[in-house]
Amino acid sequence: MAVLVLLLFGGGAVGGIWYYFSPKYTRVGYSPIQPVPFPHSVHVDQVGLDCRYCHSQVEKSWYSNIPSATTCMNCHNQILKEDPRLQIIRDSAQDGRPVPWVQVHKVPDYVYFNHSVHVNRGVSCVHCHGEINKMDEVYHAKPLSMTFCLDCHRNPGPNLRPLDRITDLGWKGANPDVQKSQGEQFAHDWKVNASQNCSACHR
Hints:
Shape: flat
Low-confidence stretches: none
Structural class: mainly alpha
Number of helices: 11
Mean pLDDT: 89
Radius of gyration: 20 Å
Distance between the termini: 33 Å
Strand content: under 5%
Oligomer: single chain
C-alpha cells in the first residue's frame, strides 16, 4: 500500500514538475513556431497599429483576445492579398475555422490574472511582455513568476504610466526620477492598492 501511495504521489510530483517547469512557464526566450509569421515589429512600429486594434478586449476583459482572421483581412484583403504565407488566414476568414496559434504567455492554471485591471491602472503591455513592438516573432520576454508579480504589487509606482501611453510601446517617459515620482502620484490618484494577499491571484 505504501509503495502504491509513493508511486501515485511521486508520479504526480514528476508530472507537475514536467508540465509546469516547461519552457511555456519558466523559460524567458520561449518562442514557439507559429502557423503564420506575425511580426509585431512591422505591424506596430512600421504600420503604427495600436495594440487594441487586434487585442480589442484587453481593456474590458480578464484575457487579451487573439484577433479573428476577419480582423486580419480588414487590411490583408488589399495588402499582400495573394501572399502564400497568409493562406491560413484567408482560409480561416472563409470557413470560420480558427487559426491554430500557439500560446506563448501562460500562467499556471491555479493563477488568476486580469488584463483589464492592470491596463486600466497604468500598467503597459511592455512591463509584462517586453518590447513586443520590436519582435519579429513573439517570445516570452519576462519571467512572469510570483516574485515578478509581487515586486510590482509591493511597489507599483515605477511601473505606472499615463493612461494615454499604455499602448505606446516605445514611450520612455521622463527621466527615471521624474517618472518614479509621477508613477507614485498615479498610484495615489488612481487609488492603486495592489493586493499582496494570496487569494488575489490564487483562486
